[in-house]
Amino acid sequence: MKFDSCHKRMASSGAAALCGGVSFLWYTVVISMSSIQTAHAFTTITRSFQGHGTGIHNKERPMSSLSSSSSSSGVMGGTDVFEAWWKKSQGSLPPNLRHGSFESDTLRGLEYIPTESKDGKSDILTLPSSLVLSSPFITKDENDITREWDVSLSASLLNECLAGESSPMHGYCALLCQGVAFSEANPCPPWTAPNSLRHWTSSELKVLEQSSRGKKMIQALENQKSDWSKKYKALLQLDKKPAFTKEQFMWAMEAVHSRAFCGDFGFASNSILKKLSTVSIPFSFAACGFESLLLQKNEDNLPLTIIFGLIGLSPIIFKWLDGALMSGDSSSKGDAVLLPFIDSANHVEDAQSIIEFDPIKNAFSLSIGRKCLQTDNTENNAKKQLVISYGAKKDSELLLNYGFLPGLSSVQDGKENEYRQRLAQTFIDQKK
């Protein structure tokens, strides 16, 4: 980030304004979906994904792992509870967004409702952090694997689901469970990614065995199964009678691996320095203002200039100290978060969407640009679907954790086996 330097003296009102400006800009955290990745492939800011590469052109279908075959309640199960919960919490739904069904009711996503006040690029959704589940983004902990991000976030999600309607997140849980009561789901709620590789039958997996690329994919699946089982066993060692079963844990792991976003949002570090760095921002601006007034009366008052200058820079100083103290801890890598409503949007890789976190408002926002609005051609152009980019993702990750590939429509007429065979053959034929 580039700043204009002051031309003359540090002890000037221009320097004072710069202190406040630097402090404020320091706290502008922008997550561009072109660099967002999903949590398990974190680089700088992340949805378990990776930066941009080969684009998915606008003509291709939005991708989602949720199809009508995954639940007896259909793809819209739980959306009514979720939206009622959202309205109770936020006062109203976003004016341009509702959950909707697409591709002949086989795909769930976000329906865009045009209004005169909205243009082609705008903030379309604001999400307060009080409605966000988070966990420190710890990718590996040899001493305690239960501290790793996916275990921690899965446990948080399960605790909310187990609490039922008493949970402040019950609407989000209802959406993920597709309207099925968590306590009554046996052995677990409907899967959030029902066509991901772990749900394929042995005969469906045999198609992948036809190539070395497919065999590597099967090995990746086995490694994932082993890893998740080890993590559940580690939880059992902490609590021999956990509140949730292994199947429920696997359900939650699938949900967080296909829905979590990652970045440095300030949730991981709860130190007093982290809190002071945010709280001190208004005082930073006030100090710079007082300094400017005093300097107009007494330009030689160097002690006051130094004092107000330090106050003006205090957010940066506190932030730096917090980062220095946290540098030896894996939790300093950031946070993994579940973002209700935002994570309901389906994926088109080159959609120009932006997610921002504002530490002053303590809220996330979603902005959309080009290629974020898709026409649902299966319904006489009656609907517009809002899509976002999860970032550039390899076919192997899409198949393993999401159960879809670019260009393939969702399951039609409940023919899940045929869809998986097409996925397998497409994966073998492609090289991405």
UniProtKB/TrEMBL annotation:
Region (Disordered) residue spans: 53-74
CDD domains: SET_LSMT (cd10527)
InterPro entries named in the record: SET_dom_sf, SETD3_SETD6_MTase
Database matches in Gene3D superfamilies: set domain protein methyltransferase, domain 1
A single MF term (Gene Ontology): protein-lysine N-methyltransferase activity
Lineage of origin: Eukaryota, Sar, Stramenopiles, Ochrophyta, Bacillariophyta
Record-given protein name: SET domain-containing protein
Biased segments, Low complexity type: 64-73
